[in-house]
Amino acid sequence: MYTSGKTPAELLESANMAYAVLTNLGPFYGNDQEARPTFRVAAEPLTLPYEYKQEFYRIGEAILELGDAIESNYNFFAGKLHPTTPISWRIDSIIDETDTLKVNEINIPDGADALMTAEQKAYSLDPPYGISTPSAYVRYFDSLNDKKEVHRIAIIAESVGLSPYTANVERMAELIELESDGRYLVTVIDRFNTPQISDWSEFFLVLNNGGYISPSLLAQYGLANEKIISAGGYSALGSKAIFAAIHNENDPMLPNLPRDTREYLKTVIPYTELVEGYDSTVAALNSKEWVVKAYYAPDQQIKRLERGRSVVGPWNSTEDRLKMVKLLNLGVKFVKQVYVQPKKYDVHLRARGGKGLDFESRFNRICVKYVNIPYENKYPVPTAVEATLGTKVVPTGRDTCFLPVLFAESSLR
Fold first, then answer.
1. What is the pLDDT of residue 175?
2. Which of 111, 119, 314, 365 is the most exposed place for a label (fewest CB within 10 A)?
3. Given a cut of 70, is residue 365 above it in pLDDT?
4. 181-203: per-residue pLDDT in tens?
5. Residue 300 DSSP class
6. What are φ and ψ of residue 165, in 5° steps?
7. pLDDT greater than 80 at residue 150
């Protein structure tokens, strides 16, 4: 049974204050005409045991070591995916019904990092590991900027004006400029406009958050590879095939992954394997035990790899499964991952225009943002932790609640 130390009136006041802060800092999704949150707002952060805080840090260490193993096999990936470890990534994880943490996605393009930063401000929280996402970006830029000169940074976004995630990219650009006191001037570039950039040398660094535009194509447009600090959807670290390679020691992708790192990742990543052939793919799609995810698509179908279009699990309809079969016929390839049933958490939600609260129990997804500052920290810093709570096992839509995670104090203190 959920209990809070606050009275109902205090909970409602907290929910309304968070709503007001998020409105003031937004928008984070959709167009710039509507700043109000497009999701349910909670009265309080979600509190998790301290042990999860330690676990998320260890996961960041292991993912960096995974990235190093990918980089060391550069020739295998060259011309297919970008093997360089990106500056940042976000994991999606699930706490299952036995309280076990499972990582089911590594995302390189990120449509929520600015929102996750704003959530901390909405509940007057310090960053859970001591450094915020925009601050970590600035510290990374500073590590390459000895003279602390003013520089321009480019963020390549997906379809500016059309993609609902552009708002989040624009907010992160503003946060970086604010954090750097104007030392870094950030330009958001529509990925479809990249051929029109006549001189990429005016940009100090380029963060490709636009998803599906390859570094080789950007090179044709005159963008030097060494300026790219994230390759978006073409980053090898974000490929779902990597999860299958972790569970298969004979896979040629990861011959140099340290054994202890592999064994640890196998405990936190649900068992995943490549699906070979039409019959095997259809069988996995029709199974209640597997989640089927696309990991490869021909260039003309590359947008199909977006998570919402390329994942089918036990929760999906027959129509959704048939769409995946059509993708199979277009040359898209898949992995299958063991389905994890999420645990439910209790939450007070702002309701009736801020005049009341709903008390509900909802399925969880826990997202963690990491930024790698190699000249300052040996391992990447988790800069924000968010709980996504929904009425369905895959929480999506306007009824979903996004809120920051607060870790309980260590039992050793």
1. 97
2. 314
3. yes
4. 999 999 999 988 999 999 999 99
5. G
6. -85, -10
7. yes
Q: How far is it between the farthest Cα atoms of the chain?
A: 61
Question: What CA–CA distances, in Å, run from 354 to 174, 182, 357?
Answer: 28, 36, 8
DSSP 209: -
Q: Are strands 184-190 and 101-107 parallel, antiparallel or unpaired?
A: unpaired
Strand ranges (DSSP E) for 168-215?
Answer: 184-190, 205-208
* Encoded tokens for 113: 């990092």
Spell out the residues 6+ positions from residue 362 whose beta carbon is closer than 8 angstroms to its own.
Answer: 344, 345, 347, 389, 390, 391, 395, 401
Nearest to 92 by CA among 77, 79, 104, 78: 104
Which of 114, 112, 128 is CA-nearest to residue 405?
Answer: 128
Q: Where are the beta strands (DSSP E) in 197-297?
A: 205-208, 228-230, 272-275, 290-296
Residue corresponding to tokens 């960096």: 64
Q: Cis omega (within 30 of 0) on the bond before 27?
A: yes
Amino acid identity of 189? Answer: I
Q: What is the DSSP string of 137-166?
A: HHHHHHHT-TT---EEEEEEESSTTTSTTH
| Residue-by-residue DSSP string for 67-132 | HHHHHHTHHHHTTTSB-SPPSEEEEEEEEBTTS-EEEEEEESS-SSHHHHHHHHHHTTPPPTTS--
How high is the pLDDT of residue 302?
64
Tracing tokens 């030392």 back to the chain, one arrives at 183
Q: What are phi and psi of 125, to 5 degrees?
A: -105, 145
Q: Which two tokens stand for residue 10?
A: 């205090």
Terminal Cα-to-Cα distance of the chain (whole angstroms):
26
Please state the pTM of the whole predicted model: 0.94
